[in-house]
Automatic annotation (TrEMBL):
Species whose genome carries this gene: Bathymodiolus thermophilus thioautotrophic gill symbiont
Protein name in UniProt: Phage-related tail protein
Length: 263
């Protein structure tokens, strides 16, 4: 019996030691992967990998804005959960991915919108891919054929903060739910992160467009201004009106109008 206790104690110590070493390493590589994905710095506060439960928990993730924007962070996520299912030689099945508490801060500079910029960054090739043009070995070819299928992808408690000259408000975005993401054959391992990120960012973009806000180059402010002018019955441009009337009054009226439209 004493031997059994000693074995159990040893296994417990080994489990703690593995967790102690694996979690910091996992956190480092996860941050590095996310930074490569978004082409922007990423910060992770808590990383917890549970080997026996085949699950991963990441808390308090922040993705910084591209360098040419004023505010530090473009998006933050309170909690990320991943549960791994069956794995065979060709397909990795992820039973569940949940993202909870996603907050995106929409911002526009002189030439671009951060949401559009991040979507563009996702399509850019990685620098590592360009510089490492080495012949692919049989082992690397096998890893490239590995695919991932997500049985259930869910993103909930999504908020979209709009911060422009003419409108400062926060939208509640409908939850995102997808079953069998990647289809029966799955998505290549090296593309799964990009496809999930695209799914989320495109949903944010669609939520804006349903409110009549286009996220193209220099479009947000112009689009909002047109709607404000129409609702206020202003024939001239708002720049001209500013010289004659109190700007704060116009902005307050604009906020009330957009609130009535569900913004």
């Amino acid at each position: 019996m004493k031997i059994l206790y000693k074995i159990l104690a040893l296994l417990a110590i080994l489990a703690l030691a593995i967790a102690f070493f694996i979690n910091p390493i996992g956190k480092h590589y996860t941050q590095k992967y996310a930074q490569t994905l978004f082409k922007s710095p990423v910060e992770i506060s808590q990383f917890s990998l549970h080997l026996f439960e085949k699950s991963l928990n990441i808390d308090f993730i922040k993705v910084q804005n591209p360098f040419n924007f004023k505010h530090k962070d473009a998006l933050s996520l309170d909690h990320f959960l991943l549960k791994i299912g069956p794995i065979n030689s060709h397909l990795i099945v992820i039973d569940e991915i949940k993202l909870d508490g996603l907050q995106f801060a929409l911002e526009q500079n002189a030439n671009q919108v951060n949401l559009t910029q991040l979507l563009t960054n996702l399509d850019k090739p990685d620098n590592n891919t360009l510089t490492s043009a080495k012949p692919t070995t049989q082992k690397s070819q096998k890893s490239q054929t590995k695919r991932i299928q997500i049985k259930h992808l869910e993103v909930r408690n999504i908020s979209l903060k709009i911060n422009t000259k003419w409108l400062k408000t926060t939208l509640k975005v409908p939850n995102i739910s997808a079953r069998n993401f990647g289809g029966s054959s799955g998505i290549p391992v090296d593309k799964i992160g990009k496809e999930v990120a695209k799914e989320i960012l495109h949903n944010l973009k669609n939520a804006l467009e349903k409110k009549g806000i286009i996220t193209g180059k220099k479009e947000i402010e112009a689009n909002l201004r047109r709607q404000i002018e129409q609702k206020l019955g202003i024939k001239g441009s708002l720049d001209d009106i500013e010289k004659q009337f109190d700007t704060d009054d116009i902005k307050n009226k604009a906020k009330k109008l957009f609130k009535g439209l569900g913004l």
